Amino acid sequence: MSDKSEPISAEEAALLGELRVKIDDIDQQIGDLICARANCAVEVAHVKKRFSNITEPKFYRPEREAQVLRNAMARNKGPLSNEEFARLFREIMSACLALEAPVKVAYLGPEGTYTQQAALKHFGHSAQAVSLPAIDEVFREVASGAAHYGVVPVENSTEGVVTHTLDNFLGSSVKICGEVVLRIHHHLLVSDVTHVQNISRIYSHAQSLAQCRKWLDAHYPRAERIAVSSNAEAARRIKGEWNSAAIAGAMAADLYGLTSHAQNIEDQPDNSTRFLIIGAESVGASGEDKTSIVVSMKNEPGALHNLLEPFHQHGIDLTRVETRPSPTGAWNYVFFIDFAGHASEPVAKKVLEEVGRRASDLKILGSYPKGVL
């Protein structure tokens, strides 16, 4: 068989030639506009530094970023999906922001985890992303000012809430500045030494093993399932084990040079994880926001009803209610509540005042833009 490409007709060559000239012209315009946007970002930095009375003015504004992405998607005429359109704009914004001041982001590591993927989805690849081994350390890094922002998981659509993240808010001063919802696709990864027909152990994080339980029962019922600290750690381990496989994402496969033996093996096709962006400062209203609070109530009959009643009376949509044991005493509980709207809005203000009067303690964790895809 010849390896030469099939010859094309003169008509096809002419049409392709015209399209390529058109693409080159469009590329020139795109390049010029990206450069113009970058120059505007540099000018923004100069203006902020000139008029700021602090040494390090705030360059990254979550509410402004969300508005820009929403506007970009509203202008999208296809054929690219809104998600892909937003991803392209995010990377342009990330590169431009790095010209003003690099954003340092701490995330629950190690490298190759879904949390790193969420950090890159939200901040783009021009951010300085630093992996840390524990959720507590991400909170401490942000609270100390060593990182501008942090990214931590808070809930999975299949396995529920990440309680350790919620508990950290009880004793921390950090604010919630944003959220990222990431569609989770698990792959069965193998290395170049894996004997695929003899896989007898499968490594992954405990939640990922749970999210793929039915698939594992059907395809590897006799394989030992070994829970490790992260999916990235699972991917790292199988490099030297001929009888092992790992459940992890595409990023871990690329990082450790592995092959995807089976793709999208999660039991629920809409499996997704929500991550929170934490920072030191409050965020202004973006027009489409959520607010998170934590409330301590007296241990008495009807406490939960009394807590939720003001939201119902004022027509505020509750998006999540979670209960956690209070650190202040046995059989006392705190309630983590998410609701639609910004705390600065008149109706939300009124509700929070009423809740504050009924509660023994109320803490606003933050108002922030709803996740953009």
TrEMBL record:
Reactions that this protein is recorded to catalyse: chorismate = prephenate; prephenate + H(+) = 3-phenylpyruvate + CO2 + H2O
Location (main, coarse): cytoplasm
Family annotation (Pfam families): ACT, CM_2, PDT
Domain Chorismate mutase: 10-104
This enzyme's EC code(s): 4.2.1.51, 5.4.99.5
Gene Ontology MF: a single term: prephenate dehydratase activity
Prephenate dehydratase domain segment(s): 104-280
Swiss-Prot/TrEMBL site (Essential for prephenate dehydratase activity) positions: 273
Pathway: Amino-acid biosynthesis; L-phenylalanine biosynthesis; phenylpyruvate from prephenate: step 1/1; Metabolic intermediate biosynthesis; prephenate biosynthesis; prephenate from chorismate: step 1/1
Protein keywords: Amino-acid biosynthesis, Aromatic amino acid biosynthesis, Cytoplasm, Isomerase, Lyase, Multifunctional enzyme, Phenylalanine biosynthesis
Subcellular location: Cytoplasm
CDD domains xref list: ACT_CM-PDT (cd04905), PBP2_PDT_1 (cd13630)
A GO cellular component annotation in the UniProt record: cytoplasm
Residue stretches making up the ACT domain: 292-369
Domain of life of the native organism: Bacteria
GO terms of biological process kind: chorismate metabolic process; L-phenylalanine biosynthetic process
Record's function text: Catalyzes the Claisen rearrangement of chorismate to prephenate and the decarboxylation/dehydration of prephenate to phenylpyruvate.
Record NCBIfam families: CM_P2 (TIGR01807), PRK11898.1 (NF008865)
This protein's name: Bifunctional chorismate mutase/prephenate dehydratase
Organism expressing this protein natively: Saccharophagus degradans (strain 2-40 / ATCC 43961 / DSM 17024)
